[in-house]
Design brief:
mainly alpha; Cytochrome Bc1 Complex, Chain D, domain 2
């Protein structure tokens, strides 16, 4: 480290091996972020629309029609359902749904069938 006493300024010079280690850490962090993003997308993509239809018919169909949600983004529907389940979004009745049920419902609802 190079600097003047009391100046509050310093310059750090990294050795080649230190730079390589920092690059490896940076790649690991970037890879982790990409992996987590892919997992989040896969969770929505792997949802079971048939199970979502059964849950929709049992829980939602009294007040809603699936066609009302056709073309909506499944991730946005999942987020709204999670808010309803968590009590953060107003809804006619309280809902208790697992994350898998929410993903299934969102897949079915976004298909609108």
């Amino acid at each position: 480290m190079v600097g003047r006493a009391g100046s509050g300024l310093s310059l750090t010079v990294m050795s080649g091996s230190h730079q390589e280690a920092m690059m490896k850490i940076s790649r690991l962090v970037s890879g982790g972020i990409v992996t987590l993003s892919a997992m989040a997308w896969a969770g929505t993509a792997a949802a079971d629309a048939a199970a979502g239809r059964a849950k929709f018919d049992a829980v939602c169909a009294e007040c809603h029609e699936a066609a009302d949600f056709e073309g909506e983004d499944a991730a946005a529907l999942s987020a709204s359902l999670k808010k309803i389940v968590g009590g953060q979004m107003k809804h006619k009745q309280a809902l208790k749904l697992s994350d898998a049920e929410i993903a299934d419902l969102a897949a079915y609802m976004s298909a609108g069938k």
